[in-house]
Design goal:
Blueprint: E1 2-6, E2 9-12, E3 17-24, E4 32-38, E5 45-52, E6 58-62, E7 70-75, E8 80-85, E9 94-101, E10 115-116, E11 120-125
Parallel strand pairs: 2-11
Antiparallel strand pairs: 1-3, 3-8, 4-5, 4-9, 5-6, 7-8, 9-10, 9-11
Length: 126
């Protein structure tokens, strides 16, 4: 099982980026997918998660710090999750990681997630 995160980069404050997380090795349509970030010298923190709740529905959960600015979504046909980040701030600078929770609970806890991608750097300049 592999998760490949991409889409990071350098952007000015107020700008946007879209991160992608491509999963391979198994289908994740019945799993929760989450995004976390880790800034230098800080612990890994929850950003957003999405989990299936019915045949065609899903629920999302966001950290307060990104609510209203970030949107998590999935494309099950592509086995890919996305994180659309708008109105970026310098404090959003971090390495962003995608992760899969096989449960699938809508959790903000790092320990709930079974698989992790390698991370993609997001840098927001002021």
């Amino acid at each position: 099982v592999q998760l490949q995160a991409s889409g990071g980069g350098l952007v000015q404050a107020g700008g946007s980026l879209r991160l992608s997380c491509a999963a391979s090795g198994r289908t994740f349509s019945n799993c929760a997918m989450g995004w976390f970030r880790q800034a230098p010298g800080k612990e890994r923190e929850f950003v957003a998660a999405v989990a299936p709740v019915s045949w065609s529905g899903s629920m999302t959960y966001y950290a307060d710090s990104v609510k209203g600015r970030f949107t998590i979504s999935t494309d099950n046909a592509k086995n890919t999750a996305y994180l659309q980040m708008n109105s970026l701030k310098p404090e959003d600078t971090a390495v962003y990681y995608c992760a899969v929770d096989s449960s699938p609970s809508l959790s903000r806890r790092v320990t709930e997630y079974d698989y992790w991608g390698q991370g993609t750097q997001v840098t927001v300049s002021s």
